[in-house]
Amino acid sequence: MGMTTTAPSLQGAMAAAAAEIDQALDLLLPAEEGPEAPLFAAMRYAAIGGGKRLRGFLVLEGARQFGVSRSAALRVASAIEMVHAYSLVHDDLPAMDNDDLRRGKPTVHRAFDEATAILAGDALQTHAFTVLAEEDTHSDPAVRTELVRCLSKAAGPRGMCGGQMLDMLAEAAGVPLDEPAVGRLQTLKTGKLIEFSAEAGAVLGKAPLAQRHALLAYGRDLGAAFQIADDILDATASTEETGKRTGKDAVAGKATLVGLLGLDRARLQAERLVTQARAHLDGFGERADLLRMLADFVIERRS
Amino acid sequence: MGMTTTAPSLQGAMAAAAAEIDQALDLLLPAEEGPEAPLFAAMRYAAIGGGKRLRGFLVLEGARQFGVSRSAALRVASAIEMVHAYSLVHDDLPAMDNDDLRRGKPTVHRAFDEATAILAGDALQTHAFTVLAEEDTHSDPAVRTELVRCLSKAAGPRGMCGGQMLDMLAEAAGVPLDEPAVGRLQTLKTGKLIEFSAEAGAVLGKAPLAQRHALLAYGRDLGAAFQIADDILDATASTEETGKRTGKDAVAGKATLVGLLGLDRARLQAERLVTQARAHLDGFGERADLLRMLADFVIERRS
């Protein structure tokens, strides 16, 4: 099947999943009531109604391989999207990347204020763990605690936070990183959370370890391809197309694989990663077709 | 027993517990190695070697009532102290309280920089949940999940983060809060985490619900008394005595019970809360003596 026939059904499925995730987030986040309402408003502004929901979609599709209930999968998808949203809110702060635009809207510290943005990010992270730990996520506490363990490791000092530190240090040093260092940075900063998103459905479904590992490996290659595609977009697309400021890697002198390898070789590497990602799904049947299409999609997209 | 004979043994026990908690944090936090070392250094700077460890001490003493292993109790004590430390790092930021001094040392954003402080706070929170979710904390995953659920609720939007939002809103409004509003603010901002610290040992020890609730109620009254004592110290003690900037509530026009009731009536209310706190321990034997002494201590301390 070529992209022309498969892409519409993937994009339809992704849009439907994004809408479901938004509904779930709407129910899971505190309602804008009471004296703390501005905090809840900032959390909702940051988390609801934006983005492709790549991570959430991975959770839902991973969970579908094992017949996990949609409501459980949506809770885990929402928790991961809360952590992703918190990381964007904090990354955008003046002391960090100082961005004014995110998903086509003013960033949280521009729409609210800096203190509220810090606090809303903090609270989104905390709330994600509440959602995972509550009984509605799975009747077996061993599953819930494993989800907490994996998400906190993916987002913590040896995961996303560590990657963000490397990114800041590289920018402060003004010396471009070499290819292994860029790879490590991206694995930590974005890769670990995408890996876990792909793996989470297998945890929820108490899948055999081999299948859990296959999904994790798929997520790893998909995440790496996604990151290269993101860097290519930053280098080539307009702010209007992506809804966030583009061209900023070059301005900031950030080392990316695009900068190190050039556009053509970076595209080739992304294609190789997509082929690898698809190969990890060989043991899965037709149910994994959307995951296969997604691998193609991450390097074809224009936003 | 009067304070003159009991206070020294309590203070010895608290100092010993603080040293044990520091050792545990030293083992549980990432070592200062690798390219992300500055992040790990900032996390360690924020979390290790400071403070009275009131929350950690409550965990350890609560756990002792039910014969919980010291190593398990120390992990939970460390996780709560990580969350407490993260909240201090973020509260001290320029966009929040803009403090230069904490526990007698420069605050994290002064000793490192603002971006590293934001990130170190984030990672301390995440890491706390990793520590709770790991098998070493308890062999029963139901216990680990319950600890995650309770800590995340105490620290989240309807707990500590909500309280911090109320504090910021009150300061921005410039209109002093009334007594119920101050009570609500303090319950959320500091009370919930102290409550859970007192309760956590009962969760670890799978204690009967009545005992778990008694410890939680003890923690609630102790936390309220502690907060009044803190406000009294801010109004009356010097920066040298407390190791942090004092007198700032009056400067900021913050509403505290001391400001609303005056020193004498605030002291009386704190004493009433201490009596209540001790009463919740009536069903516990001699093992709870340190918790009883602690209730007296929180309103006697000078730092």
Automatic annotation (TrEMBL), chains A, B:
<dbReference type="InterPro" id="IPR000092">
    <property type="entry name" value="Polyprenyl_synt"/>
</dbReference>
<dbReference type="GO" id="GO:0004659">
    <property type="term" value="F:prenyltransferase activity"/>
</dbReference>
<dbReference type="Pfam" id="PF00348">
    <property type="entry name" value="polyprenyl_synt"/>
</dbReference>
<dbReference type="GO" id="GO:0046872">
    <property type="term" value="F:metal ion binding"/>
</dbReference>
<dbReference type="GO" id="GO:0005737">
    <property type="term" value="C:cytoplasm"/>
</dbReference>
<comment type="similarity">
    <text>Belongs to the FPP/GGPP synthase family.</text>
</comment>
<keyword id="KW-0479">Metal-binding</keyword>
<dbReference type="InterPro" id="IPR033749">
    <property type="entry name" value="Polyprenyl_synt_CS"/>
</dbReference>
<dbReference type="InterPro" id="IPR008949">
    <property type="entry name" value="Isoprenoid_synthase_dom_sf"/>
</dbReference>
<dbReference type="InterPro" id="IPR053378">
    <property type="entry name" value="Prenyl_diphosphate_synthase"/>
</dbReference>
<keyword id="KW-0414">Isoprene biosynthesis</keyword>
<dbReference type="GO" id="GO:0016114">
    <property type="term" value="P:terpenoid biosynthetic process"/>
</dbReference>
<keyword id="KW-0808">Transferase</keyword>
<protein>
    <submittedName>
        <fullName>Polyprenyl synthetase family protein</fullName>
    </submittedName>
</protein>
<keyword id="KW-0460">Magnesium</keyword>
